[in-house]
Amino acid sequence: MNRKKAIETFPQIYKEIKKMSPPHHFEFKDPFWVLITTMLSHRTKDEVTDAAARSLYNKYGTAENLSRADVRDVRKLIARVGFSNVKSQRIINAARLIVNEFGGKVPERLEDMTRIPGVGRKTANVVLSDSMSIPAIAVDTHVQRISVRIGWSRSSDPEETELILKKIVPKKMWIGFNPTMVEFGKTICRPVHPLCEKCKINKYCEYYRRTKRD
Length: 214
Prior knowledge:
By secondary structure, the chain is mostly helical. It has helices at 3-20, 31-40, 46-60, 63-67, 71-77, 84-102, 110-113, 121-132, 141-150, 158-168, 177-187, 206-213.
């Protein structure tokens, strides 16, 4: 799909995607805990991530308290999370940097946030958009997969896909874009066995046209 067509058809496609997507559950709104939750979420199911983040919040409550945590205690609280050994030290280090360099508050600039160990563009953009209401597009595995399937992006690089989407998605729609696409990716445009026949945007979708023809 060329860019002109993508821009022209985006409003109708996104309108239908929103209709098909259930409301996204946010465990937290506070930027620090959204950051920690997102850092925990890599290779981990949502329910496991949310439970681990809630356990951390109940025990520590603030960035300052988490920055002083014993890594063994943190590891126990997030034991079911993927790569918990690595993540336990990483989130403590993140809390320390936020306390020591940013006064205990997550910075509002992507360039500053990505200085935090373990925080890349995707995580930073989630925090900006979902907890600070600062327009940003986070490209996680769902957004990447769906964007390529529809034909918005032909790149396998999430950062390049982010740049492409910023030229297609009106800025006023950046906030809420990732959560909507995540739910669409979990319920309809699934990684395996996507529900293409039920999907209300299949007439726009390159993946559907290709697989239907095959």
